[in-house]
Amino acid sequence: MKALMFGWEFPPHILGGLGTASYGLTKGMAKQPDMDITFVIPRPWGDEDQSFLKVIGTCNVPVVRYDVPLEKVKAKFSKYVDPQEYYDFRDHIYADFRYIKTNEFGCIEFSGRYPDNLLQEINNYSIVAGVIARTYNYDIIHSHDWLTYPAGIHAKNILGKPLVVHVHATDYDRSRGKVNPQVYGIEKDGMDNADHIICVSDLTRKTVIEKYHQDPRKVSTVHNAVEPLSPEIMAIKPEKRTKDKIVTFLGRITMQKGPEYFVETAEKVIKRTKNIRFVMAGSGDMMEQMVYLVASKGMSDRFHFPGFMKGKQVYEMLKRSDVYVMPSVSEPFGISPLEAMQCGIPSIISKQSGCAEILDKAIKLDYWDTEAMADAIYSICTYPAMADFLQKEGKHEVDNIKWEDAGLKVRKIYDELCF
Asked: Is the pTM of the predicted complex or chain greater than 0.90?
């Protein structure tokens, strides 16, 4: 089974959960002996793990025919693409794209991030998807999240093969209901053209059916999972710099994640005890607002903002923590609590999160119930027996949530579409 997957992030260069989920799912699926995955991203950096799949960067695929000497191609692309592959792409140019700005190799430049001209990059990405689809043959097309839906539709129209769109989030989640009509249009067009829609939770599935008017028969839930801890991560034993208990929020500081509820909860806890500190790790458009909110409540000496973290830094922070909190207002899934529970960190999550559907050994509360959240934090930090129970049982539960199992569910969908 040859799958052409379109994504926007891939570790180690990630800005959120999308890249983490894409990596975990593809690695889990790669354990199937006959699974051959090509994963397309806007811009690879050369240090992606390609031991179980093939990564193609759209920034390395020519869309305008230039006769570039082989040695020059090798010097430019050897880390990212086989020089012969460059010529394969070049020989399958299907239109004149001279009106699009390209470099000397005939390739479109991509930031590999979420730039101000994101809609233009999405369009350019879909153009290059057509070149890739014309160059090689695949059995199925799989688009991860809305940014890649146009690319998936383009590839489907060229190859005539089934399209699966994977909904990791919708704009209803990201915007708290204040939906961007352009984004909604791209999302709905992708779902309308898909042969099957995979959602990361039943919560998201309900949104897709009700808000995007999709046939329930073509919408399935495949919950995310978590990668086993590597020996390097397991060996991390960070020392606490304080005897105080540490309560951590780790994620994008945006309205979807409910950071203001974390601050309100912290205020209630600090009124009861001075032996607990709070950490809001991450970045986002609400960070400055949260810094001012903390200062206005007189908590600056008990509240810390270490900034964006990734990779090993995430686990170093988690292992310093005594409690992990995810007060998301609308969370399609939420992998970070699973990562925390892997490290033996008691976790509190909102009932409005997809991961709440599969986690029984985490405390589940409404995101707005800051009184209950404060009580839960205080209890975990005060009663060792409660903390011990959540540590041991939570880790045991999460260790049995595997990407390989999620991959088998996706493969079953592939087989039903292809045979």
From this structure: yes
* pLDDT tens profile 230-256: 898 888 887 766 789 999 999 999 999
In degrees, to the nearest 5, what angle opens at C-alpha 248 toward C-alphas 146 and 243? 165
What whole-number distance in Å separates Cα of residue 203 and Cα of residue 351? 10
The distance from CA 44 to its chain's CA centroid, rounded to whole angstroms, is 16
State the burial class of residue 381 (Cβ atoms within 10 Å of its Cβ: 0-12, 13-18, 19+).
buried
Residue 304 phi, psi (nearest 5): -130, 145
**What are the residues facing 219 on neighbouring strands?**
197
What CA–CA distance (Å, rounded) separates 301 from 274? 10
Q: Are 1 and 412 in contact (CB under 8 A)?
A: no
Closest CA to 73 of 45, 103, 48, 44: 103
Rounded (10°) angle between helices 384-398 and 370-382: 100
φ/ψ of residue 190, rounded to 5: -65, -45
Contact 225, 406 (CB under 8 A): yes
Per-residue pLDDT tens digits for 253-304: 999 999 999 999 999 999 999 899 999 999 999 999 999 999 999 999 999 9
Give strand pairing partners of 37: 3
Tokens linked to 366:
């409404």
- Report the C-alpha gap between 257 and 251 in whole angstroms: 7
Query: Distance between CA 110 and CA 382 in Å, rounded?
Result: 50
The structural domains of the chain, ordered by start, are 2-225+403-418 (3.40.50.2000), 231-398 (3.40.50.2000)
